[in-house]
Amino acid sequence: MGVMKRFEQRLEGLVNGTFAKVFKSEVQPVEIAGALQRECDNNASIWNRERTVVPNDFIVELSTPDYERLSPYSGQLGDELSGLVRDYAKQQRYTFMGPIKVHLEKADDLDTGLYRVRSRTLASSSSQQGQQGPASQPNRPAPQGQGGYGYPPASAPPMPAAPPPGAGRSGGPSSDWRPPTASGPAPDARVRRWIEINGTRHQISRPTLVMGRSTDADVRIDDPGVSRRHCEIRTGTPSTIQDLGSTNGIVVDGQHTTRATLRDGSRIVVGSTTIVYRQAEG
What's the CA gap between 147 and 149, in Å, rounded? Predict the structure, then answer.
């Protein structure tokens, strides 16, 4: 059984009495769960052939109405979301520098139904000495300028230009394991690329980014007009978008197409969802 399915089943057990009010919110917990999985994938840092470190401290920013509905249950929901991140990391063979925490925060600039996820790596005292710290160890924030939300882990070794030969994990990857970077030419490190969907930013840190309704997509779009694997962004000079045989196709800058070149500000429509592609130097 998949990680997301187990998470949904655990949530079903919590939906009774007053706790059911959580699910009347425009933002659904399953959407947040999918965003946390993507946050791990997009910020995975390869330390060596045996260890890929992902963030362990997450902030979910919600609109005022959504926050007011969810915050009374933030403890239970945070525990379930932390459990999902732990299960997903085990499946993907990711590791953490410290205990997993998921916090809810109110963001006045978000409308109902919109949310943002930010993450960082907080190392426990024992993991900073080269050991994986138990969940009971206190967090030690990284020095200012490192390890903050959106930054790589503090004390991380330099990333190799390419994985060493035979860098696969012992026994080979499982059938559902996806490496932090897909095969193909690496994106130009001097160019930052991301997409914006309903106020949420998704960083593009790999050569390809699949979007669709499936929980296996790199970016999950909860829209009945979107196919399970709808389209794919391929980074390069220039970056392009490719339809993956979807039912309803894609519209790029007002034109129905199966493949198109992307520029900063390109607007992509899939189903009833609009995606804005962004890129910037540095």
Answer: 7
